[in-house]
Amino acid sequence: MKNKFIKSTLILIIGGMFTKILGMIIKIVMTRLLGTEGIGIYMLIIPTFTLFIALAQFGLPIAISKLVSEDKRNNKNLVFSIIPISLIINLIIMLFLLFSSNYIANNLLHEPRCYDALICIGLVLPFISISSILRGYFFGKQKMIPHVISNITEDFVRLIILIIGIPIFLTRGINFAIAFVILSNVISELTSILVLFFFLPKNFKITKRDLKPNKTNIKETLSISVPTTGSRLIGSIGYFFEPIILTSVLLRVGYSNNYIVNEYGILSGYVMPLLTLPSFFTLAISQALIPIVSNSFSNNKYSYTKNKIKQGIFFSLIIGIPVTIFFITNPSLPLKIIYNTKEGINYIKIMAPIFLLHYIQSPISSSLQAMGFAKISMKGTFYGMLFRTLILFIASSLKIGMWGLVFATSINIIFVTFYDGYNVYKILKKRI
């Protein structure tokens, strides 16, 4: 199992490097084709997109990964029992977006040009959900190569689509170009699903018994997915309200809409992607940890579980520390190379040390969920979101521009990391 963990982590890290490079190229293409204004509008939509992805997935991929890793049930039936539920959830969200997008764009985001993209989100969600469920199955089987190949293929296809499509749709208006960027996920996610099917075993057969929904499987999956999605949903709701609160408060205290769109675009479009760059390493570590920790904890191997979690945190710090030092000492270099700009240098210098905690937050939170304590993780996320929202509202009222968002984000990272870390320590201490 030790070898599996290291092997899985290495595969995910190597694959993550390729997908992150492709992701950066996609971001560069979007930034240079859409411009600062276009990226600003796109970043206003992303929190809403993230919120509805969390709702659409409903925590099902993590739940399936955990249950498949235990290898105590018919895994094919488990997946086919959950897919109809996922599609029903997605249908409800699509109908909601159809009737609420106009209100969200005009009254919450205060940007009418977001409307078309918000409508497109509903069309994308079912493809993201099915793709995520299939990935959860392969993660549970500790087969990481299908996930890696599907991600690389997905990003490569999306890059080609964006290069061809954005200039065409820009001729019709920036709102159509941004809607196209959202809609491009349909083709890329469909490509990912087809790749995942390709990696199914040659002797893979589906029987009527596999297709018949199993109430026990559904109940067990939902018992894990509900608190898991609660945790993601809470974070996504906070993220959803971020541009709404920020825009409303800053407009009220005298900032122009142009300033808000441009500065929010710099912080969310340039600074945050750079600071979260090492996250593909920590995400790989977290994804590899889930089946290992779930299996060992369910079999009462608590010392082994503790060692794996410590190993995950250690690997995250090995990656995070040098990156943090680089961002503090040379913030202009990555900005210039990737985005051809020097906007956001001061934000990076202040936030880089805080993000060192963010790099270890993912393996810690994933370990809580893998051990069956997703509710504790949900509480930490909820408290962190409350603090973040309250601080964002108060700090933005002090006429300090985007620094209110910087401060609120930093406090949230510090609190959630220490809260989850303390609870992992307390849970394992009782059992060892």
Protein traits:
432 residues; mainly alpha
Give a verbal description of the structure.
The chain is mainly α and 432 residues long. α3 (75-108) packs antiparallel against α4, α4 (115-140) runs parallel beside α6 and α10 (279-298) runs antiparallel to α11. The two termini are 20 Å apart. It has helices at residues 2-57, 60-70, 75-108, 115-140, 145-170, 174-198, 208-211, 215-252, 257-275, 279-298, 302-329, 332-339, 345-370, 374-396, 403-431. It is globular.
Quick rundown:
The protein is mostly helical and 432 residues long.
- CA-atom Rg in angstroms: 21 Å
Flag low-confidence runs.
none
What sequence of helices (H) and strands (E) makes up the elements? HHHHHHHHHHHHHHH
Q: Separation of termini? A: 20 Å
How many helices? The count is: 15
Biggest pleated-sheet summary:
none
Helical proportion, percent range:
over 70%
Which helices and strands, and how do they pair?
Layout: H1 2-57, H2 60-70, H3 75-108, H4 115-140, H5 145-170, H6 174-198, H7 208-211, H8 215-252, H9 257-275, H10 279-298, H11 302-329, H12 332-339, H13 345-370, H14 374-396, H15 403-431
Helix pairs in contact: 1-3, 1-4, 1-5, 1-6, 1-8, 1-9, 1-10, 2-3, 2-4, 2-8, 2-10, 3-4, 3-8, 4-6, 5-6, 8-14, 9-13, 10-11, 10-13, 11-13, 13-14, 13-15, 14-15
